[in-house]
Amino acid sequence: MPNLGLIYRSLNEDDFKVLRAMERLSKRRDFIPLEDIVRETRIYEEKASLVLHKLHKLKLVKSALTGPSRSFRLTYLALDMLALKSLVDQNIVSAIGDKVGVGKESDLYKAMSPSGEALIIKFLRIGRSSFRRTRLLRSWAQSPTTTWFEQSKAAAEREYKALVDLYSNKANVPRPYGFNRHATVMEFIDGVELYRRPTLRDPWKVLEQIFETLRIAYSKVGIVHGDLSEYNIIVSKNDERPYIIDWPQFVYKEEPNALPLLSRDVKYILRFFGKVYGVGGDPGEVVKYITS
């Protein structure tokens, strides 16, 4: 498992210059010839080759022979470094720690703000294996020219903006701090994922708070989570407040699939609480409450 902090500290300005140039050029092609990188960076070829050799050893680029010359492609790890550099430059993040979680399409890292607050950096990983499915399911990824990097960037921006609106309306979501490229920064919640079935003093109150957040999302922000389950709810150890996470796939309530997705979210949560904690309710009545 790569240590992002160590890799970041090993990079110098020439390394970032090459990475930024490759990011710009990757909008036109996947693998970028060496001569194009030299032209874009205005670094002479021998030095550019040395930089690319270093980046290849760090697994920030992949290399392939395309015709008479060698070409290079960015990896997600390179995008991590570019995002982290911008977040540091913006004084949002001052340090990054270990990986603390892995989602279907993301990696989570513990981090720290310049003022010492505990943070989470969520790096979106919308990969090639799910690329076609992503386009089918997400209206914001319909363009045939949208790359897997661009999808991850769009998802991070969507999640950040959703968190800002939700948090400002007092929904139970982590406080957002910023985003850059495919990375969203939010507060660290000292809690337990609901799927681990933590012991709850008042499961009914926790369930009510989950539905209240869904109500705020629908009535005040105008969105539906669309993929809610016990896997994206964190229960605070301090006060048993349930925080709903993972918002990039939200849909607007005006979209035709919004109500079916909301109904599915409600049914999943009611089924889990009924099975594990013995509390529940009528899905139709809950949806009516959320949308009223």
TrEMBL record:
Alphabetically ordered keywords of this record: ATP-binding, Kinase, Magnesium, Metal-binding, Nucleotide-binding, Serine/threonine-protein kinase, Transferase
GO MF entry, a single one: protein serine/threonine kinase activity
SUPFAM superfamilies: Protein kinase-like (PK-like), Winged helix' DNA-binding domain
InterPro entries: Kinase-like_dom_sf, Prot_kinase_dom, Rio2, RIO2_wHTH_N, RIO_dom, RIO_kinase, RIO_kinase_CS, Tyr_kinase_AS
Example GO BP: maturation of SSU-rRNA
Name under which the protein is recorded: non-specific serine/threonine protein kinase
Domain Protein kinase: 94-292
Organism (species): Thermogladius calderae (strain DSM 22663 / VKM B-2946 / 1633)
Cofactor(s) recorded in Swiss-Prot or TrEMBL: Mg(2+)
Catalytic activity: L-threonyl-[protein] + ATP = O-phospho-L-threonyl-[protein] + ADP + H(+); L-seryl-[protein] + ATP = O-phospho-L-seryl-[protein] + ADP + H(+)
EC number of this enzyme: 2.7.11.1
Family: Belongs to the protein kinase superfamily. RIO-type Ser/Thr kinase family.
PANTHER family referenced in this protein's UniProt entry, alphabetically: SER/THR-PROTEIN KINASE RIO2, SERINE_THREONINE-PROTEIN KINASE RIO2
Gene Ontology CC entries for this record: cytosol; preribosome, small subunit precursor
